[in-house]
Amino acid sequence: MDISKNKLSLALSSSLNLEQVSCSDWDLIIRQARASNLLCKLYFLLKQRGVVDRLPMEVSRHLQASQFLGANLCRSVFREVDYINAALKSIDLPVVLLKGAAYVVRGAEAGNGRLFSDIDILVEKKHLEKAEESLKHHGWFNNDYDEYNEKYYRTWMHEIPALTHIKRDSVLDVHHAITPPTSNIKSNTGKLICNLESIEGMENVFTLSSVDLILHSAVHLFQDGEFDHGFRDLVDLDSLIREFSEQDEIFWERLTNRSVELGFQRPIYYAIKYAKLFLNTPIPHAWLQRIEKGRPTFPTLMDFFFGRALMPAHSTCDDRFTSFARWALYIRAHYLRMPLYLLIPHLIRKAYMKRMEKNKTAAE
Amino acid sequence: MNIGSLSEKEFISAIQQEGVAFRVAGFVVKLQTPFADVGKCIYLLYFDFPLADLNSFIDFHMEIVPPKGVRRWYCPQVEFYFDGFRPFKPLPRDQAYAMFEWSFNWCVANHMHNYFIVHAAVVDKDDKCIIMPAPPGSGKSTLCASLVMSGWRLLSDELALLDLQSEHVYPIPRPINLKNNSIDIIRNRFSNAVFGPIIKDTAKGTVSHLKPPEGSVLSASRVSKPTWIIFPKYLAGSETSLLKRSKAQTFMEVAKNAFNYTVLGRDGFQTLVKLIDACDCYDFCYSNIDDALEEFDKLRESK
Questions:
Q1: Degrees (nearest 5) of the Cα angle B89, B91, B96?
Q2: How close, in Å, is residue A35 to chain B by CA atoms?
Q3: What is the ipTM of this complex?
Q4: What integer best gives the mean pLDDT of chain A?
Q5: Packing angle between helix A230-247 and helix A265-279, nearest 10 degrees?
Q6: Predicted pLDDT of residue A363
Q7: Closest by Cβ to A68, choosing from B57, B69, B263
Q8: Closest partner residue to B57 among A34, A58, A315, by Cβ?
Q9: What is the rounded distance in angstroms from the CA atom of residue B2 to the CA atom of residue B259?
Q10: Positive or negative, the Cα torsion across A160, A165, B108, A45?
Q11: What is the mean pLDDT of the segment spanning B63-69?
């Protein structure tokens, strides 16, 4: 793995003198940023550093253009949250936002320029049925219903199949936990709900606490096995850690204690290690040692896999092991998610369904 | 140095190997394709466009390639890749060049949100332009082709690129995509018209691309002031008529034909308000091209 191929991480972590970057390097940075869905994020970071206006026009206009997408997304997130709130408030349930939408409504740095397509919310399992019912009354349906997927999600997953709004086409992911019930790391939704933080000016809308947002992001990235946006998620972690550690004097203590309490030491070890490696995230030395407790048995082996999978999903960042690494981590994620006797039939079924889909497309 | 300063053979071999970068008005595109016929078409229709350095900053990295798997040979298809990303399903092999043109539209309309982008033809005289938004089948491209073959400057046949600050239209004078009967109408009327190959059975019927006039290509860096918005409609046997239409209605109609009206939010709204304020708005109905050209000349002289 050659980390220097990742020009984007150099640009994001201000390790480059941007005024001396050549045209062909800018070409790479913009392409890698676009492929990782980070163009708008790059815009915000460079603007903060006051360099956007000093870039060559042909480069800056791509960044400026993406900023419109970010602003538009931001508007629609607030609008959607109002609609979701109307659906859940009517049955006395709070709106608990996760991931991207949470960063945006909190006004966190991580929300600036983050592009995403779904809104994720957390509903306690005991309220799931009535929440679904009310969301349905407000126009959210499961659009591509498939019996196997439905059964799989309902039995083994920590979320229900995605809901799409019948008029606005917006997509809503409803979670009842942040890891699957059969996962090697069990999550306790009750504990997360206890620490919710409210949003100023938005009645009945909450997010996880700042520390829990980081833990969730880490668990999502290092347990889930979908690395198309791996680098983007790492950039989230970098932003969240930088911002919250500055706001809160005992941030590191809180983070490590909470990771022990929830059993998330392993994902937080990975998160901090790779955020530091790729994005130069500032981590106090003492805490670097504390998180060593979450170290895996074969850290070098995991470097081989994560080091590749976490690169921007762009051909200029790949080497000959990249697709193998992403594939292996996909399998690993399933293995972590469920025991083998469930996993193997599921993967066979998935492969078969994918094949059928492919044949269908080819026939068309 | 423009594309035409290479020989056709040199150009095709370059596009098949590392690809060719060229400048289309404000954009640098790089295209790589193993298909000699696509190279040949681009050589013919983009002859006057300047070449660019492969090491310069490139706005759109494009590839037109055969799919992996059996569809490379069996009922062959082609695919478009935007820097490794495949936004569309494959098309039949003989639509390769048309796929390049459609994908080019997609590249601009989906990424360049620093323009207010309207699906419209734009033609210009004396740096004042007519914006003609219209749904497919309205005779917009036929009218646009006739105008530019009669001395009007082509700004675009598909994409009106409006600047968000300066209220100007930026040219992007690419080949004009003509459909079905319009191909013969233009070919018969203008003997100097240069066409790419006839491509049959596309989603839009039979299509062929008209080479943009050299003058329009050479002046592609000169912006133009929007002065008229005209909704053309070809109606067989009809009298030529140019009727004023309401500005409010025109606003709504242009917004509907814009690619990024919602993306731009307030900026989109304000740009559109300025545009509508600055333009005279008409509905135009025609069946005879000579009469249509005369009507447009009269309109130009009125300002």
A1: 125
A2: 8
A3: 0.93
A4: 91
A5: 100
A6: 56
A7: B263
A8: A58
A9: 31
A10: negative
A11: 93
Report the C-alpha gap between B235 and B287 in whole angstroms: 6
Q: Is B203 exposed, middle or buried (0-12, 13-18, 19+ CB in 10 A)?
A: exposed
What region, left, alpha or beta, does residue A302 occupy, with left being phi > 0 and alpha being psi -120 to 50 degrees?
alpha
Q: How many CB atoms lie within 10 A of CB A150?
A: 13
Please name every residue paired with B132 in a beta bridge, in sequence order, or none if there are none: B121
pLDDT in tens, B245-266: 999 999 999 999 999 999 999 9
- CA distances from residue B255 to B113, B245, B260 in whole angstroms, order as listed: 15, 15, 9
pLDDT-flagged residues of chain A (< 70): 1, 358-364
pLDDT at A347: 77
Euclidean distance between CA atoms A134 and A87, whole angstroms: 6
Nearest residue to B190 (alpha-carbon basis) of B213, B222, B167, B174: B213
Helix (H, G, I), strand (E, B) or coil at B195: strand
**What DSSP element (H or E) covers B62?**
strand B60-65
Chain B contact for A292 (CB, 8 A cutoff) = no
pLDDT at A65: 96
Of B55, B84, B265, the CB nearest to A314: B84
Size of chain B, expressed as the number of residues it contains: 303
Q: What pLDDT is attached to residue A157?
A: 86
Q: Which residues in chain B touch residue A61, judged by CB atoms under 8 angstroms apart?
A: 112, 114
Among A189, A191, A140, A144, smallest CA distance to A163 is for A140
CB contact under 8 A, A68 and B84: no
On whether any CB of chain A is under 8 Å from the CB of B113, the answer is yes
Residue A181 gets which letter from DSSP?
T
pLDDT in tens, A253-292: 999 999 999 999 999 999 999 999 999 999 999 898 888 8
Residue B28 near chain A (CB below 8 Å): yes
- Compute CA distances A286 → A238, A243, B222, B282, whole Å: 18, 19, 61, 72
Higher pLDDT, A210 or B68: A210
Which class for B156: exposed (0-12), middle (13-18), buried (19 or more C-beta within 10 A)?
Answer: buried
Give the minimum alpha-carbon distance from B296 to chain A in angstroms, rounded to a whole number: 35
Q: Model-level pTM?
A: 0.92
Contact present, B166 and B123 (Cβ < 8 Å): no
Average pLDDT over residues B167-174: 95
Instruction: At B201, list the tokens.
Output: 């059975």
**Predicted local distance difference test score (pLDDT) of residue B244:** 96
**What per-residue confidence (pLDDT) applies to A14?**
77
Residue A16 CB burial class (10 angstroms; 0-12, 13-18, ≥19): middle
Q: What is the pLDDT of residue A224?
A: 84
Q: CA-to-CA distance for A124 and A135, rounded, in angstroms? A: 15
> What does residue A228 show for φ and ψ, rounded to 5 degrees?
-60, -35
What pLDDT is attached to residue A293?
Answer: 86
Which pLDDT does position B137 carry in this prediction? 80
Whether pLDDT at B196 is above 90: yes
Parse chain B into domains and list their residue ranges.
3-111, 116-301
Domain locations along chain A: 3-363
Residue B103 host element (H or E):
helix B96-111
